[in-house]
Design a protein that fits this description.
Elements: H1 6-14, H2 19-26, H3 30-40, E1 43-46, H4 50-60, E2 71-74, H5 87-90, H6 96-111, E3 121-125, E4 129-131, E5 137-139, H7 142-164, E6 175-181, H8 190-194, E7 202-207, H9 210-217, E8 239-243, E9 266-270, E10 273-274, H10 283-288, E11 296-300, E12 303-304, H11 316-326, E13 332-336, E14 347-349
Parallel strand pairs: 1-2, 2-3, 3-6, 6-7, 7-8, 8-9, 9-11, 10-12, 11-13
Antiparallel strand pairs: 4-5, 13-14
Helix pairs in contact: 1-3, 2-3, 4-6, 6-7
Length: 350
């Protein structure tokens, strides 16, 4: 290694993807370490355990490593089933002391995101289980699962708020992705609206469906409003995604009338239920308020909701005719009504 040209060593490093192999290369000498570190620490994954949170905190607080971090992902699990346990089923697994230690460790780690001057993207995956300190995957009690969601989210927004008031030229987190969110009552998310100068240009929210929450809690009205997670209206937000990938999402308390983003160019909506009548608070008018800036609109598996059987359900084809007439600036459209509502096929247009 000592006699190899630096360009060749860099070529070797750039073609190594396996994390353990990168750590082995890093240990060879200082030259290898300096070449490996930007690749190794570009993306940091935090597992849902006390040990992982504590280890990552050491990286976040390292003056030499913190500037290398551009992306943080919380609890990535490929092809992992999402299963909410009823309270009675999770009681036997509940160790409140260990759970409290996990929340404390996660809080300290995510608040420290403010130490990362080049951080651009944060993805938060919420799973109803955690890794115990003995290394066992432990199902979550519903209370602790939702509590941890709020804890982690609050910590991330605390970090963003710290940086928004900083005199340094820190650009802030640009992309925030939230997966498997159980929406709580709107006051639980007051910290979102306390961030008056959000740095986000891209926000993606994937929520737990109404059917999943009903099976979990027995309540048909548990789902809070996704509106509570939308940032204060600002000029920065250019892309917004609201999804419910495993079933329909609907919240009667949703009010979108306060939200307009003058620079919004891309909107993705999946399995979101439209109200049976048009209103300034509804999703439909929320879309139309951005007709002058929207370049891309993706709408999948939409249905129309009515609580009064005497009121005819509006066909999706009728809704689309209104949108099509007013959204004159669109350059790309993807519409898939799942085979119902008056559209025969999925189509994409430019």
């Amino acid at each position: 290694m000592h006699n190899l040209p630096i360009e060749l060593v860099k070529e070797i490093v750039d073609n190594v993807c396996d994390t353990p192999d990168l750590f082995h290369l890093r240990a060879v000498n200082s030259t290898c370490r300096n070449l490996v570190d930007p690749n190794l620490f570009h993306k940091i994954c935090i597992r849902n355990s006390v040990k992982s949170a504590q280890n990552i905190l050491q990286i976040f607080t390292s003056p030499s490593l913190a500037p290398l971090i551009h992306e943080v992902v919380y609890d990535p699990r490929d092809d992992h089933p999402f299963t909410l346990l009823r309270s009675s089923d999770a009681e036997v697994c509940c160790d409140e002391v260990e759970i409290a230690e996990l929340e404390e460790a996660l809080t300290e780690t995510f608040v420290s995101l403010s130490n990362l001057p080049n951080l651009k993207s944060v993805t938060l995956n919420f799973w109803p289980s955690f890794n115990s300190q003995s290394g066992v995957e432990t199902p979550d009690h519903p209370f602790w699962f939702t509590s941890r969601q709020l804890t982690v989210l609050h910590s991330v927004y605390h970090a963003m708020k710290d940086n928004s008031s900083s005199p340094s030229p820190y650009p802030g987190i640009r992309s925030l992705t939230l997966n498997n969110v159980v929406l709580m009552p709107s006051p639980s998310y007051d910290f979102v609206h306390s961030l008056k100068d959000s740095p986000l240009t891209h926000l993606s929210i994937s929520v737990v469906s109404n059917s999943e929450l009903f099976a979990w809690s027995g309540s048909k009205t548990l789902n809070g409003s996704v509106e509570a997670l939308l940032p204060v209206p600002n000029e920065r937000l250019t892309a917004l995604e609201i999804k419910s990938p495993r079933g329909l999402y609907h919240s009667p308390s949703a009010r979108f009338s306060r939200h307009t983003y003058p620079s919004l160019q891309s909107m993705v909506l999946e399995n979101i239920v439209l109200d049976h009548t048009t209103s300034t608070d509804g999703v439909e008018d929320f879309i139309l308020r951005h007709k002058n800036t929207l370049k891309k609109l993706e709408m999948k598996s939409y249905v129309n909701c009515t609580q009064n059987m005497a009121i005819p359900v509006r066909k999706w084809a009728t809704i689309w005719e209104r949108l099509k007439d007013e959204l004159a600036q669109l350059e790309e459209v993807v519409v898939d009504d799942g085979g119902c509502g008056g559209l025969d096929t999925r189509f994409t247009g430019r």
